[in-house]
Amino acid sequence: RKMNDWIRGMKKGLPIAIGYLSVSFTFGVKAVNAGIPVWITILISVANVTSAGQFAGVAIMAAHGSYLEMAMTTFIINVRYMLMSFSLSQKVDKKMTLRQRLMIGYGITDEIFAVSSMETESLSARFMYGLITVPVIGWTVGTAAGALASQIMPGALSAAMELGLYAMFIAIIIPPAKKSKAVLFVIGIAVICQCVFTAAPVLKEISIGFQVILSTVIAASIGAFMFPVKKEVKA
Predict the structure, then answer these.
(1) pLDDT in tens, 43-100
(2) What are phi and psi of 69, to 5 degrees?
(3) Over residues 186-201, mean pLDDT
(4) CA 67 – CA 76 distance, rounded (Å)
(5) Which residue, 172, 216, 184, 183, is CA-closest to 23?
(6) What are phi and psi of 86, to 5 degrees?
(7) How far apart are CA 200 and CA 99, in angstroms?
(8) Hey, which residues does 123 pair with through a beta bridge?
(9) How confident is the model at residue 152 (pLDDT cuts 50, 70, 90)?
(10) Do residues 207 and 65 make contact, with C-beta atoms less than 8 angstroms apart?
């Protein structure tokens, strides 16, 4: 049963790994173009496994931001993984040790969380290991391929791939924005905030990391005030 759990996890993780290849390839290109050595770029992906956090981190590195700026930005972007881990902790096998939980926590991403949440049975350590291992390999291989390809890739093609990254993020936010006015409103506020920080005479001097932090906090706060989540009162 243990081996079956491992294989079943790997099979479910394979589509995630394939999807990660294109995104991590773009990250590898962007990181090397920002002046980060190939081996450090690969190490970043192995140690983090977080797309948005890694892209934001590279931008801060390229802008010579501070450690505090880096820590606060990546915390705000990646705090959702903490909430996902809390949720999955209710589904894992009760016999799972602390060491196993920590190892699994390392590999929790949006996609892995979604697949895990759909499981009807309790999550065994071996199933989660299999589910996490293949996507991590895909993320790392894609990063390595992008980092190495950037060495021989024409500059125009590298720039085009970076533009493709923004198109990808737009494609991510459009579907939920079409379904929810609240999401659309928050996105609009965040865009306005970022435009102000980019163009305003004094505010544009704020480093890019703190701009992201302030835009996120302002947009989320206004959204929470304007569209509070209504609690259902049980009789």
Answers:
(1) 999 999 988 889 889 988 988 888 888 888 888 888 889 989 988 988 998 889 999 9
(2) -60, -45
(3) 89
(4) 14
(5) 172
(6) -60, -45
(7) 49
(8) 92
(9) confident
(10) yes
